Amino acid sequence: MVVGAAGWWCLVLWLPACVAAHGLRIHDYLYFQVLSPGDIRYIFTATPAKDFGGIFHTRYEQIHLVPAEPSEACGELSNGFFIQDQIALVERGGCSFLSKTRVVQEHGGRAVIISDNAVDNDSFYVEMIQDSTQRTADIPALFLLGRDGYMIRRSLEQHGLPWAIISIPVNVTSIPTFELLQPPWTFCSCRFLEDFSVPLWRH
């Protein structure tokens, strides 16, 4: 991948500066850090759902991030027992973002992180909106880049682990070396996907 001048600028400076340059505010993002496995011990960037789901009222210093089975989490989860009181990592597709959030909530999850199903997506954040069912969800729902989700799952598979251990949310403004802790495969050229010609809840 060839990185333009703006891309190199973003690699050198902190993400907050990159966010400002692309017209987004730092509070449009929520951050979490993988503590284990060690090969993906990075700070990841996610975006909260726009008009559904709850917020984090406390910081979890150590909590499990459990990949849902099936990964799209559109119905009963075969590993729902392990998601109870933990955070689920699910994949985009098959049903609405809200439906996935409700499935995780019904299994007792504290929050859900929904990664894009395009594993090469390392820059486009989708704005997750409510579907047309008038349902609600109470737990936080976050969108994660497809590349980040893929790398987390791949690491867990390589290590034979059923979950990662993460800290969430992370206050990046208090971390002087934040720019050194970002995933090396993700460039700061991220922006929201704002083409509303297709309802995003269907994705």
TrEMBL record:
Keyword ATP-binding carried by entry: no
Pfam families with a match to the protein in the record: PA
SUPFAM superfamilies, per the entry: PA domain (SSF52025)
Signal peptide coordinates: 1-21
Domain PA positions: 65-149
Highest taxon, organism lineage: Eukaryota
Record keywords, A-Z: Glycoprotein, Signal
Protein name: PA domain-containing protein
Organism of provenance: Pipistrellus nathusii (Nathusius' pipistrelle)
Source lineage: Eukaryota, Metazoa, Chordata, Craniata, Vertebrata
